[in-house]
Each structure stands twice: as structure tokens, then as C-alpha cells.
Design goal:
Blueprint: E1 2-4, E2 23-26, H1 31-43, E3 49-50, E4 53-55, E5 58-60, E6 66-67, E7 69-71, H2 77-95, E8 106-113, E9 118-122, E10 138-146, E11 154-155, E12 158-160, E13 170-172, E14 178-183, E15 188-190, E16 193-194, E17 204-212
Parallel strand pairs: 1-13
Antiparallel strand pairs: 2-14, 3-7, 4-5, 6-9, 7-8, 8-17, 9-15, 10-14, 10-17, 11-16, 12-13, 12-15
Length: 217
């Protein structure tokens, strides 16, 4: 298994590797805003709810597939993050060959991964049988990582899967203040988190952000 442990602005793995492209932005929010986002997460611990997964047209809790806590109500942070992401969309769309797709709505949620949390291999684009026809398609996925320092957890890498069977995957470390972007149809997983203290504050925190293709309001 290939591991990407250090921050890089590379557009993806070497050309010979059979992956869809990805892009990493280190120090995306900076010290002040990343700490502010963490403080917001800790202050709203009681509002986090078990993460849902899509099964057919239903959304349900299935810890065998995905174990995490999520927060949808983000107060002043939602417009801030949407604005920051929207500024990145033209560059990312060009980088990933999506320049013909206008950006639509931007969905944002906060996720906390404590001890044992994970998300099995999946893609972020819902199939026609799993989404309302008016919802449009997710075209870009972005994940922003933040956490206490020193880090109170281990594991939790995003595993980026190759499109060619038998090729090694790529593990991308959830480094503090790192933004990761990739096409929403790229297969990936969240590897299991170990958080020995069990404290919420020691969780692997992330903002999950999805940019839709503009085909629906």
C-alpha cells in the first residue's frame, strides 16, 4: 500500500498509477480559522448525530458500512466554507476534466471519527436509483481535515482505490489543515480510526464538502 504522509500540492499520483486524479492543498484555512472550526466542533458535541448511509432510496444508520458522527448545522461556517470552495471550483474542474460542468449547490457537513470509526469503500456520486431526479449529480468531493494537536488518534487515512484490479491503493493521511479534492466518482474509503482516550475532543474531524454539477437548483 502506497502512503502519502506529507503535504503536497501534486495533482495526483505518478502518471503510471491507475488512479483518477486528486489534489491536495496544505494549510488551507490557516491557524486561526482551523482552530476556530475545532472550537466550534467541540462546543457542539451534543448536536452530532450518527452518520447515515444510502440504501436504495432510504438513508439509514449502518455501522458495519459507516461509523461516524456528523453535524449538519454549521452556523456561520457553512457560508464561509462554501465561498472558499466555490473559488476553487474552476481550477479543480479544469484539473479533473470537468470544465464543461457548471458548479451547482455545495453541500457541507462536519464529521467526527472516534475509536473504531470507518467508512467502507464507496463513491460519493449517487446513482439514479438512489437520489431524487431534482438533486443533480455530485461532481467534486472535498475533505478538509482538522484535529487537536498533539493528535489523539491514529489511522483514519483516506484510501484512494485504483481503477485497475490488482494495483496498489494510495493512503492519504488526514493531516491538520489539509484539504483533499477528487472527482466524486472516485472509489475511496476511510480506514479505521484508533482513539485510545475515547474522548470526543481527540476525534479525527473533517469537513465533507460536495459540489453538484449545476443541473438542478
Amino acid at each position: 500500500m502506497t502512503t502519502l504522509a506529507d503535504a503536497t500540492t501534486a495533482g495526483g499520483p505518478p502518471a503510471a498509477a491507475p488512479f483518477l486524479p486528486h489534489h491536495i492543498v496544505p494549510d488551507w484555512l490557516g491557524a486561526e480559522e482551523s482552530e476556530g472550526l475545532l472550537s466550534f466542533a467541540l462546543a457542539h458535541e451534543a448536536a452530532f448525530q450518527p452518520a447515515l448511509v444510502v440504501q436504495g432510496m432510504a438513508r439509514t444508520v449502518n455501522n458495519a458500512v459507516r461509523s461516524a458522527l456528523v453535524l449538519k448545522e454549521l452556523g456561520p461556517w457553512k457560508p464561509v466554507l462554501r465561498q472558499r470552495v466555490r473559488r476553487l471550483v474552476p481550477e479543480l474542474s479544469t484539473r479533473f476534466g470537468l470544465s464543461a460542468c457548471p458548479a451547482g449547490r455545495i453541500e457541507v457537513e462536519m464529521a467526527a471519527h472516534g475509536d473504531g470509526a470507518h467508512f467502507n469503500r464507496h463513491i460519493d456520486t449517487l446513482t439514479a436509483g438512489s437520489r431524487p431526479i431534482t438533486q443533480g449529480h455530485r461532481q467534486l468531493s472535498l475533505i478538509y481535515y482538522f484535529h487537536r494537536r498533539p493528535r489523539g488518534f491514529s489511522g483514519g487515512a483516506l484510501r484512494y482505490y485504483p481503477l485497475v484490479p490488482g494495483a496498489a491503493g494510495l493512503d492519504i493521511s488526514p493531516e491538520h489543515d489539509r484539504l483533499l479534492a477528487f472527482p466524486s466518482w472516485a472509489p475511496h474509503s476511510v480506514e479505521r480510526v484508533s482513539c485510545p482516550s475515547g474522548h470526543f475532543a481527540d476525534s479525527r474531524f473533517a469537513m465533507n464538502i460536495w459540489v453538484y454539477d449545476g443541473t438542478a437548483p
